[in-house]
Specification:
heterodimer, A: RNA Cap, Translation Initiation Factor Eif4e, eight-stranded antiparallel sheet, B: mainly alpha, two-stranded antiparallel ribbon, disordered C terminus
Chain lengths: 209, 175
């Protein structure tokens, strides 16, 4: 009995960290449900750079306080250079369709093609997207969302939510919430396309909301 | 499952804590470098497109190019069709087929008739190996703007070449 108690105590010690174990963790007052990694796609400045060189993990965090600290320290959406991407994905998932967690999934997305008009609101909309993802209100209990992506392109700002799979019934909630988060009107449609389909030329969206 | 609404998260904005400042500073530097590179590329592209490299210093001390003087007139080739080009008339037959009749040529149209009459004459045996052909040159096309064959020019050219043997012979004659 005493042996069992000792073992349990040891396990308890491993789980509950104190300020002496890890000062940084001690700052975390509001832990998030998941750990998140911010990635950045650097635009190519040298022809020898390939996709793997350009996609860089920036930082991983797990609390609301850290989220704000990071958000306040990095460039806002409309200050990023052209051909940049921000990706915020659950820790351990690379923002690539080849990743095991993404390979059977797809993405909900919307493109703000009027860049002049959108550049005034894209910072707020991207922040709303981030908050919905880290706060995990972008879905109910489906656990379908792997991450959120912002693409800065010459023609458009594009926001996408990457999902684990392509099951229509599980995805509608995410699509509807993305539409609300991005404050889109009924006429502005969000589209879902699987990664498989988006790699084929001429393929169309599977769900449009 | 711990969920935070947008409002709850915004309430905590003031509690911001930067976990690894060094990493974020390095990240910002990298983005700044990319931005500078993009700006330099843009300037380079702009000067290649419009400028010839000549610049002047304006009244505010800024270096400016003579773009406004060097700019070429926009090309007509994109989108604008040549307004002088005539299109043929469309003829619709009884079955509803539409045919564009050939636009009349501004020059050389009578050649077509000549060709037809020549072909007919050959067919009728008026012209052929047994019959002499009286050729009437069509002077109209002789004044061509085509470049002269350079070989012909060389053949016609008067050349003064020095021939040593001839020169020696001449000397002999003089003596």
């Amino acid at each position: 009995m005493s042996e069992e108690l000792t073992k349990q105590t040891e396990e308890l010690n491993l789980e509950s960290k104190t300020v002496f174990d890890n000062k940084e963790e001690f700052e975390a007052k509001h832990p998030l449900n998941s750990r998140w990694t911010l990635w950045y796609t650097k635009p190519q400045t040298n022809k020898s750079e390939n996709w793997h060189d350009l996609l860089k993990p920036v930082i991983t965090f797990s609390s609301v306080e850290e989220f704000w600290g990071i958000y306040n320290s990095i460039p806002v959406a409309n200050q990023l250079p052209l051909k940049s991407d921000y990706h915020l994905f659950k820790e351990g998932i690379r923002p690539e369709w080849e990743d095991e967690q993404n390979s059977k999934g797809g993405k909900w997305q919307y493109s703000f093609t009027n860049k002049r008009e959108a550049s005034g609101v894209i910072n707020d909309l991207w922040l709303r997207g981030l908050l919905a993802v880290v706060g995990e209100t972008i879905e109910d209990e489906e656990n379908e969302v792997n991450g959120i992506v912002l693409n800065i392109r010459k023609q458009a700002f594009r926001v996408g939510i990457w999902t684990k799979d392509c099951e229509d019934s599980k995805l509608r909630t995410v699509g509807e919430r993305l539409k609300k988060v991005l404050q889109l009107s009924d006429e502005q449609k969000v589209e879902f396309i699987s990664h498989d389909a988006s790699n084929k030329k001429g393929s169309e969206a599977q769900i449009v909301l | 499952m711990a969920k935070y609404t947008e409002e709850q998260l915004i309430e905590l904005k003031e509690e911001a804590y930067v976990p690894q400042e060094g990493i974020l500073e390095a990240f910002n530097q990298m983005v700044e470098q990319v931005r500078e590179h993009a700006a330099a590329e843009y300037e380079k592209h702009k000067s290649i497109k419009w400028g010839n490299g000549d610049t002047y210093i304006d009244e505010n001390g800024n270096e400016r190019s003579y773009n406004h003087l060097n700019r070429r007139r926009a090309s007509r080739s994109s989108g604008n069709k040549n307004p002088r080009k005539k299109t043929g008339e469309q003829q619709v037959d009884e079955d509803g087929w539409a045919t564009f009749s050939k636009a009349k040529k501004s020059f050389g149209a009578e050649d077509e008739d000549d060709r037809q009459s020549f072909r007919q004459a050959v067919k009728d045996g008026l012209i052929g190996p047994n019959n002499a052909v009286r050729v009437k040159p069509n002077n109209k096309n002789l004044g061509s703007s085509k470049a002269v064959d350079p070989r012909d020019a060389i053949a016609d050219k008067h050349t003064n070449t020095f021939n040593a043997f001839e020169a020696l012979g001449d000397d002999d004659d003089d003596e």
